[in-house]
Amino acid sequence: MSKVLIIAEHDGTHLNQSTAKCLNCAQSIDDAGADVVTLGNQCAAVAEQAAALTGVSKVLTIERAENEHAVAAVMAPQIAALADDYDYVLAPSTTFGKDLAPRVAALLGVGQLSDVMSVEGPREFKRPIYAGNAVVTVQVPEGKKIVATVRAASFRPVAPSGGQAEIASVQISVELPGHTRFVELLSGSSGDRPDLQTAKVVISGGRGVGSEENFEILYRLADKMNAAVGASRAAVDAGFVPNEMQVGQTGKIISPDLYIAFGISGAIQHLTGIKDAGTIVAVNKDGEAPIFEIADIGLVGDLFDVIPELEKHL
Amino acid sequence: MDKILVGLKRVVDYNVRIRVKPDGSGVVTDGVKMSINPFDEIALEEALRIKERGDASEVIAVSIGPPDCQQQLRTGLAMGADRAILVEADQETDPLAAAGIFLEIIGREQPDIVLLGKQAIDDDCSQTGQMLAALWGRPQATFASKIEFSNGTASVTREVDAGLEVIDVDLPAVITTDLRLNEPRYVKLPDIMKAKKKPLEVIGAGDLGVDMSPQFSAVRHEPPAERQKGVMVEDVDGLIAALKDKDLLG
Ligand SMILES: Cc1cc2nc3c(=O)[nH]c(=O)nc-3n(C[C@H](O)[C@H](O)[C@H](O)COP(=O)(O)OP(=O)(O)OC[C@H]3O[C@@H](n4cnc5c(N)ncnc54)[C@H](O)[C@@H]3O)c2cc1C
Asked: What CATH class has B3-222?
């Protein structure tokens, strides 16, 4: 029998949707259900949100003052100790999971699978390499624990089960290092706009938008469409928008129903981030821009003309 | 601080269009341009800047792989690294083995900081730095976009999904670099000549006593599912109609 442990991602009050996506992945490994562990400091609300999800056998909570912030060096030894009882340890392929999972794997003395996009068998998985330009099917030999991050854009979140799984508090007596200390989180303000990683509609701007001020017209359009706003690396590098808005190989990998790119040329590193979108719309004044090769709907035009006109129709 | 160790991985250049071999055994790398992994180049640039402002005395570039990695190490030396170490391995080295090798080099060199790229653009694993930090029992500061030092600690700004996170780590520590940490310098011709005289030590991976057996086996490679080219519309009215057609306008 296989036992799956999922490391919950949360901010102390809200469970991140990536956890529900990991549960979906876990179901294709073993439909008997998975355990979810929440590490935190007074985060009972998070455990309850996890317990309400389909496919959860049990929620384990490790409450400790040191777990107030997600510091990988502090969390990893606790998870490695807990992992003794499990065959699989899954974390989302977000910056949280990417930071933590390799540290857990190394403590367990095993390799780690990054960005699992599908489960082909109990020990066989597909994952993207070369910025998604190739897909490799990987087999893990018998007798090894499997530690993996789950590519969020490849899995839909599981729904609430309608019930509530058991929540159990666990004590793990491992020594925690003091060499790594959280100082602060500076977040660029996306205000009340939907979260880029879960929004159904995403509007993105590239270098073509030209400036921080010009991004205002994208925000305005986004608010009319209840959309999140993303950006290319060029737009982030130029300082038009904060880093957490970057979409792509080294930014966020997203899968909205609708993605509208304004003034983005379509470099492979950007396209990697949007391959799983339902419909891709591209607006670019250069008819030769590579983004038109993959766009479902393309419009050659100046974004400064198109956006105001589009707004009038909404 | 004394020494900074930097990892330089030889990878297919980021501008190359990747093709999967017809038999699915891998991707085509014969006759393809190879470069330093872009994130590692940023790591080296940062190490050089730290040294140039007087916060470190020596920058050592380390690569793991076939003899051809000497090209990337020579580029690193031309950028300004003081010396280089090639750990020669004929098979592919997965992140856990790479971390094991770095740990051995740390044992010999006793660096204060190990700077690695946050991921390699070939396998896209994003693991080696974290695994090394775990094996070493030291802090990790991943996805760094800013690094400052004071009294044996590094204050590192990290690019995370929620924005920018600042953490303090005691040294020695592993730091992995994100894109916006810096813009690497260009190599000048005279530096390439000078780099030829800088020391480059070659060590066999087997001599380090690290378990190199692969953790996983690759069953097959395939190209990704391609998105089809869609329709071009003439104007905003056409765009609206096309969106309505797909039921995407509420
Ligand atoms: C290791 C590595 C990782 C990377 N990771 C990422 C990543 O995660 N995400 C990412 O996005 N990039 C990434 N990049 C960068 C990527 O290669 C491209 O440089 C970047 O995506 C380009 O951004 P852009 O399309 O906004 O800019 P450009 O390529 O400069 O394109 C701007 C476009 O705007 C159009 N335009 C200009 N004015 C207007 C107007 N008024 N109306 C309409 N169109 C207009 C132009 O025709 C042009 O097509 C990475 C690169 C490397 C090397």
From this structure: alpha beta
